[in-house]
Amino acid sequence: MIGSTRQDARLAEVRFLTVAEVATLMRVSKMTVYRLVHSGELSAVRVGRSFRVPEQAVQEYLRGAFSEQ
């Protein structure tokens, strides 16, 4: 039970972004974000008919993009 409490606390700290917010942050189109999500390059959670992207996933993706150059 204690392990789930820690996990719940960590989950409560996660900040989710909409596809539009990710697109603005990355300065790309929403379609580009959808392509990244569908290809698995950017992790996301489906909520109903829309996606929410953990802010940390965006930061990790951008870090990876910078290190590839």
UniProtKB/TrEMBL annotation:
GO terms for molecular function: DNA binding. InterPro entries: HTH_17, SinI_DNA-bd. It comes from Catellatospora citrea. NCBIfam families: excise. Residues 16-64 form the Helix-turn-helix domain. This is Excisionase.
